[in-house]
Amino acid sequence: VVELSDKGTIVTFSIVRVPSENIPLELPYITVNVLLDGADTILMHVLDANLDDVHMGMRVQAAWKPKEEWTTSTATIMYFRPIDEPDADYESYKEQRQRE
Fold this sequence. Notes:
Shape: globular
Strand content: 35-45%
């Protein structure tokens, strides 16, 4: 078991404007690839933020479901949200962008 921070950096993002039967979110919404602090692989999830504010390097933190609803799935995270930290330097996540 490896414990990771629930904070990370947006490596890439997409603004989704096409509905999906599998994702019951109001359009448009933002999907993000997040590099969690201390991790070496990215996690794909959704971001709760203004569409105009999202950008690569943005620092984010997971918003968790209530602890009694936790499982081993990433669905335990409701979404990520921006936090008041300076953007990450591109050098700190560029290797992850090149892997995609």
